[in-house]
Write a structure and sequence with these properties.
Elements lengths: L1 E4 L11 H20 L5 E4 L3 H4 L9 H6 L4 H14 L3 E2 L12 E5 L2 E4 L4 H11 L5 E4 L17 E7 L7 E6 L2 H12 L27 E8 L2 E6 L5 E4 L10 E4 L6 E5 L5 E2 L12
Parallel strand pairs: 1-2, 1-6, 2-3, 6-8
Antiparallel strand pairs: 4-5, 4-7, 7-8, 9-10, 10-11, 11-12, 12-13, 13-14
Helix pairs in contact: 1-4
Length: 284
């Protein structure tokens, strides 16, 4: 399995430091999950050009945008997990594709020259090794949104080499933890990413009943840094209690107004109404 950081997904899509901070958190969480994968993997990055030639915040390259983030712990976490713990290699040191070949990204019948990028490198490797698994990690809110026909929450990246539209190269891309979990389950049959009772941190939303998009809708509201979810059938509001983990992990459930605490739920969504607390409420 070879995993590449898709620098082309840095398109100046973030309007401010808050949006870019959210993107960094998401990106860092993806790589925390990658760090848990026990199967053999190789991680590749673009050389330092990812920090110079691509914009994060509008009209600001990656390095300059990173300097505007005030949360030093976030920057430290990003660098530690992405570039230190996982120690990605620069693919140019093992370059496969020829700089003389042409590579175009196809999206909505539009063509974009991606010659001499990670996308071109992965495309060539896929051509030469059809049976090998390749994955591209995108930054959120990019233009890489073409839905994958087979893998939920993944995007399909379509590339042609030297204008050969008949033999298109199709690559997998993810931009969230949930998307990565779906990819791991589909490509590698890894469904081991369930929450365990010996965990040292609270469960992620997608490790609970909140992952059921037919039952819940994520809102813009947060409590203790956790997103609040709206239960479609009842109008109740749910979120993961960020103060408990392992066997004590649970979700908090509130009524339609958020002013009345109804009880606690286990990770499978079973509510214990006997644990309601009149002193608890949320602002919506």
């Amino acid at each position: 399995m070879e995993i590449f950081i898709n620098e082309v997904s840095l398109e100046g899509q973030y309007f401010n430091a808050t949006e870019f901070s959210d993107a960094l958190k998401t990106f860092t969480n993806i790589f925390k999950l990658i760090n848990q994968i026990n199967q053999y993997k190789k991680l590749y990055k673009e050389e330092s050009r990812i920090f110079v030639n691509y914009e994060a915040m509008r009209n600001s390259n990656f390095n300059a945008s990173l300097d505007l983030i005030r949360d030093k712990s976030l920057k430290r976490a990003f660098n530690n997990i992405v570039f230190n713990k996982l120690d990605p290699k620069e693919w140019r040191q093992e370059r496969v594709h020829s700089p003389d070949d042409l590579f175009d990204l196809i999206s909505d019948n539009n063509y974009k020259n991606i010659k001499d990028t990670s996308l071109a490198e992965v495309a060539e490797r896929k051509l030469q090794n059809q049976d090998k698994n390749y994955l591209l990690i995108n930054f959120i809110n990019s233009s890489f949104t073409d839905p994958h026909p087979n893998i939920k929450n993944n995007c399909l990246i379509t590339i042609i080499k030297n204008n050969d539209e008949v033999n298109q190269i199709c690559l997998d891309g993810v931009d969230s933890e949930l998307a990565l979990e779906c990819w791991l389950e589909y490509r590698l049959n890894l469904s081991r990413l369930e929450y365990t009772v010996d965990s040292k941190e609270p469960p992620r939303d997608e490790q609970t009943i909140l992952k059921d998009s037919l039952r819940f809708r994520k809102t813009k509201y947060k409590y203790h840094e956790r997103f609040i979810y709206y239960e479609l059938a009842t109008g109740y509001y749910w979120y993961v209690d960020n103060l408990h983990y392992a066997q004590a992990a649970h979700l908090e459930v509130f009524d339609k107004t958020g002013t009345s605490h109804l009880g606690e739920a286990d990770l499978n969504g079973n509510v214990d109404f006997g644990k309601s607390d009149p002193n608890k409420n949320i602002n919506l």
